[in-house]
Amino acid sequence: MLYALLRDLNRRRFPFRVVLNWIIEGTSEILDMRSSWVNKISVILGSKPPFNWLILCLISVLALIVVLGTSTSNVFDSVSTTPVSDIYTSYRRQKERAAIDLFDLKSLSLATGRLKEFGLCGKERENHVPCYNVTANTLAGYKEGEEYDRHCEVSRTAERCLVRPPKDYKIPLSWPVGRDIIWSGNLKVTKDQLLSSGSPTKRLMLLEENQISFHSEDGDGVKEYSFQIAEMIGLGTDSEFLQAGVRSILDIGCGFGSFGAHLTSMNVMVMCIATYEATGSQVQMALERGLPAMLGNFITKQLPYPSLSFDMVHCAQCEISWNDKGGIFLIEADRLLRPGGYFVLTSPTSKAVGGSLSSKKISILTPLEEITRRLCWTFLAQQYETYIWQKTTDPRCYLSGKQEIVPLCKEGHDTPSYYQPLVPCLSSTTSKRWIPIQNRSSSSRLSSAELEVHGVQSDDYADDLQIWRTALKNYWSLLTPLIFSDHPKRPGDEDPLPPFNMIRNVMDMNAHYGGLNAAFVEQKKTVWVMNVVPVGSPNTLPLILDQGFAGVLHDWCEPFPTYPRTYDLLHANGLLSQLLSSRCSMLEFLVEMDRILRPEGWVILNDKVGPIEKARMLVTHIRWEARVIDFQNGSDQRLLVCQKPFVKK
């Protein structure tokens, strides 16, 4: 009967405090009872059972209820990367389980040893980006531009602290207002730097002491510039980019992101990359506006994208000497371009030689003519300071022998590129993905034939997408601080409209097929997703990029190449288990997540019980609010939902 009672209590999920009160009241009644079954026990144990025995019974019953009542486990199992869509949508049951979860957390903490809560970093690290320490790189012997490159092995620090927001930091405005107006206190670029930067003053206007406004449609000419590029490649208007196969653009040195901000409204994905800057960061500015961006440069290493990733490479005064080092930077651009893709170069007038237009044209084109001819590029057009080349769609051009072509890379060289050295050879000329951009679908939904190129069956892709459709609906309903309340809502209380606060920049840290991104697109959420494929996982990044999504390879044993406070939501499915089975530290991983997550931002981790319990213990020491969600379907999958507080000290 006792077992049946405990099983009923476990099924009904009573709050821990209620159960404890019942036990205390029941124990008092037992001490006063003189029923027949008590007398029978007295025959066995004596007329006066020892008080210690009663206490032992009480503790045993209490422990048994806790063991049966909790849905968590301390056994660290391996992970299944298939998400489960049956997530709680009722908050009342979550609130009733709050006390039990808190008890489990305290028990786990006592069993494994208590860690101290991390302190906040000093003011000098408010905009800290690991792996980009120019001084340390110089001391390590890097020179000729390499000191500005990414070197994680040099700049690792033993100090572990939480990067604090600037004194005047404010939560970004909701999209699309946040695209055009940002808080100046959120950036490390100062008002004086903006006002002294020359041409950008045409694009910026300080409305107040703490705001920066971007007038992309009024004063900076970006709309006319985009229209000009469309005309130069034979289109009637820039709204025809998608129909012409231009779905994704790599914008090198994107400035304040105005080009990308304009094309975003046309569903063209523009990824900004720029070098690390100690002040006035282009990447930080673009991300603050809710635009895709990350740190990256053309110095000595390839960018962490596979070959044939973009439909256009755009460089407007990006300060790269494309003809240096035998044209190796143009060879890297060729690697990234899809067949039929465009290379757009807007060159500064400071490179003019002489005073006439013809002499200026010679000074710019002459160093590039020979290299682009060896790449089998075709020069399309020139207007004012803008020049456009097109990559060949015919791989036989590289074997024609009519001209001195850049040599082809050896077979098997086209492996996933994760900061590999730049190479002076052409790759992917025999790839199955060699499909001209003009022959690709303008939709993010790939055809069966396109999926087969990536070795993916249509049914598998459809099943994965259906899972993420349901999961996203449930995720969206959970993003409210009510999830952390220890008290159930009163009857009649309505849920707030989710999400509770602005979500624009999303990172899927283990993206697989990009199903979460596809679900966001289908449900018309105003977000963009950085799809990260971990190094060592199956390389699905080409599939993600071919859908027109943003994506990148990354090793999660290292910091991500972005500035602090640049993402609103971090999602990871199965990634914690991968960390446990690798050389990576889960604690370092969570601290890095805290660095790139903005205050009041959200974290959703989907994994098995063991990794989730370990993460839940650790996040309390980086000051996150946390809640474990049990799917209640008999599986050992759990969901850990966290929110980063807005801490200022």
Automatic annotation (TrEMBL):
Gene Ontology molecular function, alphabetical: methyltransferase activity
Keyword Transmembrane helix: yes
Transmembrane domains' residue ranges: 51-70
Subcellular location field: Endomembrane system; Membrane
Enzyme class: transferase
GO biological process: methylation
Domain of life of the organism encoding this protein: Eukaryota
Membrane topology term: Single-pass membrane protein; Single-pass type II membrane protein
Key words of the record: Glycoprotein, Membrane, Methyltransferase, Signal-anchor, Transferase, Transmembrane, Transmembrane helix
GO terms for cellular component: cytoplasm; endomembrane system; membrane
Enzyme Commission code: 2.1.1.-
Family: Belongs to the methyltransferase superfamily.
This protein's name: Methyltransferase
Annotated source species: Cucurbita moschata (Winter crookneck squash)
